[in-house]
Inverse folding.
């Protein structure tokens, strides 16, 4: 009797197994989820608008940047509302690895050449490796190539140099919203006036809010902490849109800063939003793949 | 009681020594390809989970969208962020059955044509599909292969207005899984 019961029991078990075979197969192959998931596309460009974002050019990608700030819109018809007076920067950035990128560029303002490095120190992630924020370091050296104002006196090459150092801390809060804080230290070897400070500290705050799949509203503000500079100059405020189309990112914005690089727009912004010193500007960046990923190399 | 033990031992033994009923892999390959006037799109994924039950003919696979690798990193970002929305729909999967199971002898090495019917889920949308494929049976493994077309619109994957007509509306999907017997 026991044997019969046992046999029936076994048969029953076997038949129930059969019933849900497809589902079981699905359960058997398990979860495809990776151990650590990293946040991606915190920002769509290596810049929020004017300032740096935590993003780097992808590994092996070269980005060609065209950055343009027109003159302020309030200067009237004679200068065609700023279209005659513009600052332009042409630049290149390259992702050497997933975490290291370098850049060079030249800006028409003070005929400045700059070279930069950006290092991803930490990536926002969940899972085995858990981090609430992404952190990057950005360092830049700028060289003004203007003719000396007074060629008679002894001029030092080092006087042409200024530097920017930033720690960029960002979090992608949702797929539509990312925020960033950017503590900044700027050093100028030589300043124009005795009241100008050689060392300027500032903190930037910026964000991106997606309006549609390919358009986002970007806002960026740099608050100057150094007392004297804060008194003599204005904080930089930029409001704009990011528009993505395939290999390009277009950034269109309004800003009170004429300068494009950190050494210019953070400590030397003179425009006031309330007076209408508003510059229209845009960045166009184009990606080129120089080094293909493993799967695509012949 | 002794008889019961014997029966249990026998059942276990049979299941151990009988031919493996289930075949499985965790590194199958799925690629897709489309050639539009603007962009040639190609992506590969080598982390496909798949399983086959040779007795019942059940066949399944599941793939993580984020592990598709593209030639252009930007394209990969757009694929995940805007097209398949990987945060919301992390996986694509297929649950189906071989309909001509009688034509396939999984114990005899050869290449067999197979008809497979089932449900394909991409971007959170499940559609019935019927495709043909082949099973290459070798002594230690079964390789399943299938090439089929998928219409993006069927799975609510929208192409932005600016590039309509420049990106192909149908993509070719290639599934190639090398399944190995699962010993209980």
């Amino acid at each position: 009797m026991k044997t019969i019961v046992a046999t029936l029991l076994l048969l029953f078990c076997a038949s129930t197994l059969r019933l849900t075979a497809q589902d079981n197969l699905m359960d058997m192959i398990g979860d495809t989820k990776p151990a650590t998931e990293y946040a991606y596309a915190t920002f769509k460009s290596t810049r929020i608008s004017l300032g740096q974002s935590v993003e780097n050019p992808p590994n092996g990608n070269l980005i060609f940047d065209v950055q343009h700030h027109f003159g302020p819109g309030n200067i009237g018809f004679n200068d065609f509302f700023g279209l005659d007076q513009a600052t332009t920067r042409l630049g290149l950035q390259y992702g050497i690895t997933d975490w290291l990128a370098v850049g060079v560029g030249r800006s028409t303002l003070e005929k400045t050449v700059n070279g930069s490095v950006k290092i991803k120190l930490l990536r926002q992630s969940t899972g085995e490796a858990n981090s609430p924020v992404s952190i990057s370091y950005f360092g830049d050296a700028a060289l003004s190539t203007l003719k000396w104002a007074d060629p008679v006196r002894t001029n030092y090459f080092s006087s042409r140099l200024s530097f920017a150092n930033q720690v960029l801390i960002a979090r992608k809060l949702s797929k539509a919203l990312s925020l960033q804080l950017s503590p900044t230290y700027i050093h100028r070897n030589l300043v124009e006036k005795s009241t100008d400070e050689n060392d300027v500290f500032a903190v930037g705050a910026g964000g991106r809010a997606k309006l549609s799949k390919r358009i986002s509203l970007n806002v960026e503000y740099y608050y100057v902490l150094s007392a004297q500079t804060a008194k003599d100059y204005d904080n930089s405020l930029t409001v704009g849109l990011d528009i993505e189309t395939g290999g390009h990112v277009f950034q269109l914005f309004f800003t009170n800063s004429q300068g494009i690089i950190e050494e210019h727009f953070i400590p030397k912004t003179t425009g006031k939003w309330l007076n209408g010193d508003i510059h229209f500007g845009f960045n166009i960046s184009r990606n080129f793949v120089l080094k293909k990923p493993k799967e695509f190399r012949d | 009681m002794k008889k019961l033990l014997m029966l249990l031992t026998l059942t276990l033994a049979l299941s151990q020594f009988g031919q493996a009923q289930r075949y499985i892999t965790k590194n199958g390959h799925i690629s897709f390809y489309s050639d539009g006037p603007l962009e040639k799109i190609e992506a590969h994924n080598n982390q496909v989970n798949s399983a086959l039950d040779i007795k019942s003919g059940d066949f399944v696979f599941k793939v993580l969208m984020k592990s598709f690798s593209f030639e252009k990193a930007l394209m990969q970002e757009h694929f995940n962020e805007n097209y398949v929305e990987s945060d919301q729909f992390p996986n694509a999967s297929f649950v189906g059955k071989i309909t001509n199971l009688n034509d396939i002898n999984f114990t005899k090495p050869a290449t067999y044509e197979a008809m497979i019917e089932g449900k394909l889920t991409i971007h959170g949308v499940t559609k019935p599909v019927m495709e043909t494929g082949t099973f290459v049976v070798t002594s230690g493994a079964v390789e399943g292969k299938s090439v089929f077309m998928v219409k993006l619109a069927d799975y609510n994957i929208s192409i932005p207005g600016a590039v309509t007509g420049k990106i192909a509306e149908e993509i070719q999907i290639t599934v190639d899984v090398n399944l190995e017997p699962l010993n209980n």
